[in-house]
Write a structure and sequence with these properties.
Blueprint (H helix, E strand, L loop, with lengths): L7 H18 L8 E2 H7 L8 H13 L4 E4 L8 E4 L9 H19 L5 H12 L4 H8 L4 H17 L3 E3 L9 H12 L4 H4 L3 E5 L6 E5 L1 H7 L24 E3 L13 H15 L3 H6 L2 E7 L5 H12 L2 E6 H4 L6 H19 L4 E6 L14 H18 L4 E6 L7 H5 L3 E5 L4 H9 L9 H8 L5 H13 L5 H16 L10
Parallel strand pairs: 8-11, 8-12, 9-10, 10-11
Antiparallel strand pairs: 1-3, 2-3, 4-6, 5-6, 7-9
Helix pairs in contact: 3-4, 4-7, 5-7, 15-16, 18-19, 20-21
Protein name: ATP-binding protein
Keywords: ATP-binding, Nucleotide-binding
GO molecular function, one term: ATP binding
Amino acid sequence: MSKDHLQESNTLIFLEELIKLDQDVLVEGDNVGLNFKDFITRFAGSLPINPSETLVFLLSLHLNNKISFYLDDDSRQKEVLVKLKPDKLSDSSLIEFFSFMPILDRMAKEVGVLKAMPSAVVDFFLNKFYEEPCCKILKEYNLSVVELFAYLHSLGNFISFNTKTFELNLLARYMSKVSFLEFFHYVSNGSSLLINEKLWIAKPDRFSDEVSVKLTNKSLSILFPEWEIDQDPSKIKVTNDKFQEGFVLYQPEELSNIPLYYNAQNQKFKDRIDLILNNTTKDKLSVNSISMMISGYPGTGKTAFAKKLCRDLGLTLMYVEVSEVQTKFIGETEQNVHKLFTQYRKLWEKSEKPIVLLFNECDQLFGKKIQVEKSSDMYLNAIQSQLLNEMENFTGILIATCNSTDNFEEAFKRRFLFHTVFEKPDFETRKKIWLGLDGAWNNNSKMLDTISQYELTGAQIDNVLKKMSLLSTIDNSVQDQLLFDLIEEEDNIFVGNKIGF
């Protein structure tokens, strides 16, 4: 873009026109967005003649907080609107630039300059952010204009929509058909510098000719050097970023240290597991793995048991929420399963102490195989076959929780060494739970016996106390009655068919 279009004098002329529009259109205190096309028509005389230079000029004003552009999410076509009173931008102009990419795309489409955008955006990026570390690094790769534009576009997609995956077809609108097919070919066969330099990973679709790409950790480390991301995709970084790789990794000191109370049979099971793990080593577990299935009523402490076990024994917990592993896309869930076990094996190799792998709420994942009547049935059976194969070769400590094993495939049941059912706490256990919590019942044995009569789980008792805390502004005499009301309310939640969640 010509530097003349960014000179202060030209900007001031434009802003003077903008003030006139503000006075003509907006009522006092209003900040309603104006239609972008109408806006362009109004300012045609004070904008650069070249449409692509116009868009880059407006982008510059947006980044300098002189005017704001945004997408109307309520519009089916995601229409671009203009705010004459700018919103406060991100602290980083670079991040704001990437956030602006989807808006710029729509602006370019409305103005009809899509094919000119790659060179205009790349020139702007290199001139505007030449002092930024990421810009200096990208210059060293000597990417073509098309490659750098595509890469910037994928980063904008990540910043705006929080996804590393980027569909290459989104770039077709910016190139001639011949240029796009050539670029598509370079990426899909691994010839592109973006693939060779490990900035992208190509992901062919198993059921079509389409190709998507995924930003690597190396890419994110270029944009966010302060994140200290492990750039080697063959290594697994110990991290607590939730579901970054499909799991949460908890160090023992990060897990809750609250006391847990179980019925006599469940406590006996916990003591037995504690004894085994206290008297074994990682080397022994590499030969004789430990796997346990914990089923039972919701809120009885199945997940809390696994976390408490790791806390007490000083073990790292790899926590997998099964709902995060399953997807609606054919073939992707079994890939996720394989990836999780691969990550666990790498973590196991790197760790000095055993690591616990927890599959939480796995009812659907371990269900019985079904007769194939449609393609989705074959898909579900393929997931289970993948999971059975992984468990067959498993080394380590595996815990799976579920509400019931009645509908489980027998092959899954055989692969678990230990099985136990966590029942709802009995009367004496409920008394222990209430006594472990602060309240008027601690000094009132009659009240304690009364509230313990209600067959609540530990999770339900916790819910009662949370509600009490929110309503703690009333006096004590009314508060006692409130306690019983909340207990009865919680006790009635699962009346009838008590299903899991």
